[in-house]
Specification:
The chain is mainly α. The protein is built from six helices and three strands; from the N terminus they run ααβααββαα. Strands 1-3-2 form a three-stranded antiparallel sheet.
Length: 164
């Protein structure tokens, strides 16, 4: 793999590690992101310089999350993996679930007895901000789903980078 490709794959791995997934899962995603065709576990392991077992575990994890899809080829018993076409929306849904969980934690803390007024004010602010974020992200997901249904060949108006 070319050094610039390797650097991209490694950066994606570190990004996904910061998001809570194993670095190898991110590297698999980064590698597949640059592939025109689905790859077998052997191709992934060779391309990333890791064991097939490690690739298998994390390819399965990414498939369960809906970020990869598994494919087959006629006459070939191996599984092949590719980036799911729904990955942008799926990734946003995963983020939304995480934000909703955090909001529920903050919201639950509002009912703690004897909370200092300054702390209560902070909790209420966090709760309001996260409510806005959750609502906005839900709207964004709905918009992305509409774009996905109508095709991604042109940018909808109002999207950064679109031409008027």
């Amino acid at each position: 793999m070319d050094a610039s490709y390797q650097q991209f794959v490694d950066r994606v791995g570190m990004h996904w590690e910061n998001e809570g997934l194993p670095r190898i899962a991110g590297r698999i995603f980064g590698f597949l992101f640059l592939q025109a065709e689905p790859c077998s576990l052997d191709e992934l392991a060779d391309g990333l310089g890791v064991s097939k077992a490690s690739v298998s575990t994390d390819a399965r994890r990414l498939t369960q999350l809906g970020l990869l899809e598994r494919a087959s080829r006629p006459g070939d018993r191996r599984d092949y993996y590719a980036i799911s076409p729904d990955t942008p929306v799926t990734a946003m849904r995963l983020k939304l679930r995480s934000m909703e969980r955090f909001r529920r934690l903050v919201h639950g803390a509002l009912s703690l007895p004897g909370t200092d007024p300054a702390v209560r004010e902070r909790l209420e602010k966090f709760d309001r901000v996260h409510e806005i974020i959750v609502q906005s992200t839900t709207g964004l997901i709905e918009r992305l789903e509409q774009v996905g249904r109508s095709g991604l060949t042109s940018r909808p108006s109002g999207v950064a980078g679109s031409e008027s």
